[in-house]
Specification:
By secondary structure, the protein is an alpha+beta fold. 19% of the residues lie in helices and 39% in strands.
Length: 273
């Protein structure tokens, strides 16, 4: 999902992986933006930040062409602008910062009482227990490449139980091993997993694409660690603003030992059909 084909002169193509609801996952676009920036910056391999604007909705059946502009390159940092285009329309406009040195670790502690992923049921068991409530929700979230475990239950179950608190804790990991250069790209992809579900829950909505749907348009990602591999990560997601159709979410992402891996802020729209 984050691989690109190089076309030369800092131009790349990425193939969409369609979601069940007929779109392209924003996290895949973020991961491909990171890959494009990283490929053009061999002397600065470490992720610092990524700020992306989703300008138009991508089509799930056409490749995205990414063009990298080399904004600046210093001894410590490099900045790359990455613009993704489909059929002449800009899909994403992103600024990526990279560093020649790894980030300094910032350690915190996991909140007491938060159960680990091995203590929580996998998606198939959760869906099998409440098939009429959960439906295909996990298929939409995991896309067949991600494992996710909700500490307090997935959004469909919480909405049924009228648990509309403006936060959620969830463990997330890729199903395939991720090491080396792909780590930054996959962290960028994972940063978008279920992020707008938290403000949707406060409204009692799922964003199912039938009655309501959510679209992110501003995604701000900052890296505070660059693990050698990506395994289980604990997401703490909060709804910061719910104002009419405009919502804003933020998240902290922690490694199992408490190391802060990244922070995310996202603004989006929630629309009713």
């Amino acid at each position: 999902m984050v691989d690109l084909t190089g076309l030369g002169d800092d131009v790349f193509e990425g193939t969409p992986v369609p979601m069940r609801r007929g779109s392209m996952f924003g996290g895949q676009i973020l991961g491909q933006c990171w890959t494009a920036a990283h490929e053009s910056t061999p002397g600065h391999p470490w992720p610092v930040s990524l700020h992306a604007f989703f300008v138009s909705a991508p089509e799930p059946s056409s490749v995205v062409t990414y063009t990298v502009e080399r904004q600046r390159e210093s001894r410590r940092y490099a900045w790359r602008r990455v613009v993704g285009v489909q059929h002449g329309s800009v899909v994403v406009d992103a600024l990526v910062a990279l560093s020649a040195l790894p980030p300094a670790a910032f350690e915190t502690v996991l909140p007491p009482g938060v159960r680990g992923p091995d203590e929580l049921d996998p998606p198939d068991l959760v869906a099998g227990r409440d098939p009429e409530v959960v439906g295909d929700y996990f298929d939409h979230v995991t896309m067949g490449v991600i494992d996710v475990r909700y500490v307090d239950g997935p959004p469909p179950v919480r909405i049924r139980d009228r648990d509309l608190a403006a936060e959620q804790w969830l463990w997330v990991r890729p199903l395939s091993p991720v090491v080396g250069a792909e780590v930054g790209a996959v962290l960028a992809l994972l940063s978008d997993v279920n992020l707008l579900a938290t403000p949707l829950m406060t409204m009692g909505e799922l964003g199912d694409g039938v009655t309501t749907y959510a679209a992110s348009f501003d995604h701000d990602l900052r890296f505070y660690a660059a693990p050698a591999e990506v395994d289980w990560l604990l997401f703490h997601q909060e709804a910061v603003v719910v104002a009419g159709s405009t919502v804003e979410s933020r998240a902290r992402v922690l490694a199992p030992d408490g190391t802060l891996v990244l922070t995310v802020t996202q603004q989006g729209l929630v629309l009713r059909r």
